Amino acid sequence: MPKIIGSSLSEHREQVRNRVFDALRHQLYERGFDAVTLAGVAAEAGVGRTAMYNHFPDKESLLVAFVEAEATRYVSRMTAAVQAAGDPVDKLAIFVRLQLRSLAEYHLPPGTALGSALGPAAYRRIAAHADPITATLREILREGMDAGRIPEEDTSILIPMITAALGSRQVVDVEPGQLDAAIEAAVRFVLRAVGARV
């Protein structure tokens, strides 16, 4: 019988998932999604292959569970950071910084590449996690427009343009010592692009 980690079965499951996600996060950062294997993640996590398959029957289910957990944590952090700022332009700058830091940390294939790596149902589950992020951006822009800090524009046009700009890996694929400067340049770009009154 495998050794139980933690004081209960539910705590054991949670700790196994955390170890697996830590290993997957490391491998995504080091090698990218295509090079990840369940056996490799299990070995790095110190989890038996049978236990790994009990939790995640295939690579796709592992990625979906990982993205769901990361997205939930990210949305909570983003919401708290944005709500802590009083000014809508500051909120937009915080939003941009968080999005780019997140992009710099993970090496998931973007957009259409991710769609081809996953089945349609799995891709829809992952894509649904962008909804609260998009809703937050819409609220920030609307608040800025209502306050006269951002010129009135159609948010259905602005949002895809901003998200396209923030989805470019070229912005964050820089030397580590240059990342802060690259992110701040992107913040200034987005603020200028929406006509924010700083």
Automatic annotation (TrEMBL):
<dbReference type="InterPro" id="IPR036271">
    <property type="entry name" value="Tet_transcr_reg_TetR-rel_C_sf"/>
</dbReference>
<dbReference type="GO" id="GO:0003700">
    <property type="term" value="F:DNA-binding transcription factor activity"/>
</dbReference>
<dbReference type="InterPro" id="IPR001647">
    <property type="entry name" value="HTH_TetR"/>
</dbReference>
<dbReference type="GO" id="GO:0000976">
    <property type="term" value="F:transcription cis-regulatory region binding"/>
</dbReference>
<feature type="DNA-binding region" description="H-T-H motif">
    <location>
        <begin position="37"/>
        <end position="56"/>
    </location>
</feature>
<protein>
    <submittedName>
        <fullName>TetR/AcrR family transcriptional regulator</fullName>
    </submittedName>
</protein>
<keyword id="KW-0805">Transcription regulation</keyword>
<dbReference type="InterPro" id="IPR050109">
    <property type="entry name" value="HTH-type_TetR-like_transc_reg"/>
</dbReference>
<dbReference type="InterPro" id="IPR009057">
    <property type="entry name" value="Homeodomain-like_sf"/>
</dbReference>
<keyword id="KW-0238">DNA-binding</keyword>
<dbReference type="Pfam" id="PF17932">
    <property type="entry name" value="TetR_C_24"/>
</dbReference>
<feature type="domain" description="HTH tetR-type">
    <location>
        <begin position="14"/>
        <end position="74"/>
    </location>
</feature>
<dbReference type="InterPro" id="IPR023772">
    <property type="entry name" value="DNA-bd_HTH_TetR-type_CS"/>
</dbReference>
<dbReference type="Pfam" id="PF00440">
    <property type="entry name" value="TetR_N"/>
</dbReference>
<keyword id="KW-0804">Transcription</keyword>
<dbReference type="InterPro" id="IPR041490">
    <property type="entry name" value="KstR2_TetR_C"/>
</dbReference>
